[in-house]
Amino acid sequence: MSELLRQHIEKITPLTDKEFDYIFSHFTTRKYKKHQFLVQDDTAVQHDYFVLKGMLKASYITAEDGKEHILQFAWEDWWITDYQAYFNQTNATLTIDCIEDTEVLALSLFNREKICSEMHKMEHFFRRKSSFGYVALQKRILSLLTNSAEQRYQQLQNAYPQLFQRVPKTLLAAYLGVSRETLSRFSKM
Amino acid sequence: MSELLRQHIEKITPLTDKEFDYIFSHFTTRKYKKHQFLVQDDTAVQHDYFVLKGMLKASYITAEDGKEHILQFAWEDWWITDYQAYFNQTNATLTIDCIEDTEVLALSLFNREKICSEMHKMEHFFRRKSSFGYVALQKRILSLLTNSAEQRYQQLQNAYPQLFQRVPKTLLAAYLGVSRETLSRFSKM
């Protein structure tokens, strides 16, 4: 399973076997069952998670009405955590839980900073990942500002068709910010 | 004026005089008048801009109705460009123009990658900046998903009071995604 992480890093920077083994020694493998939590609201966030297998979601629960708003899905070859809490070492405002049985590689902030400081190429890898992530979030903000919910539904379906196979409609609605009923209307069109 | 860039980088990593001079040699100083464009829709994006003086906005114009949606403001000590176009070296989908007379330091992608590859500490600096930027955009997405326009107005005013002194109400409305009339209602409360 470590091969998935190696391929992922090598899309940005090549590694020797020795370098990869050293990097990999900073991760720990963890398995979770469907519905299990990786991050709970108002608790410390120790790790960033690289997904080997499964599907997760990061969500924010509105205090007033208990409504779930999904910030992010993650599946194989994606990273997920509560980044605000992780980078600032504060308590989580998000909850992260499993939509399927899941296997991840967990990286503590200490180990992330350690391998970045020891290996220029890992600093480079994470800079590139962050830059691409920043661009993706800017696109999502523009989409929220300028597109209708129906346009956002179509974009999501075109970009990530497998999401529609693996994730219940209720959760897609919570990601798009529409009701379950509105979503059903889109999917019939 | 180069002192502002040095202080900005040294918030994350200390530099010797020689290191800073070398880094600074990769930037070019540019001055623009109010209303002048730095980036125009559908043209190449050569530079990322660090603001020494002035105020700018990055916006997306909806093709159907010509409506302006503001993605970002930038002023002293901030960076701005069309990052999607800059990192991928594609044409701009945003326009960036000056709300005040402005002075910037421009950094080409070639020079950015050059100083990052030559100096581990600059790779570190840009990784940290990107990570913080990513967190800020996640917060904005959550705010768009969970808060009313009025709550977002209050948050903006609390976080950046100087923005309300320097930017016309019409532009604040285009950032918050509300009409000029709705914004006036908030500001009277």
UniProtKB/TrEMBL annotation, chains A, B:
Judging by the UniProt lineage, the source's domain of life is Bacteria
The protein's matches in Pfam families, at most eight in alphabetical order, are given as: cNMP_binding (PF00027)
Annotated Cyclic nucleotide-binding domain residues:
30-109
State the protein's name: Crp/Fnr family transcriptional regulator
- Its source organism is Lacibacter luteus
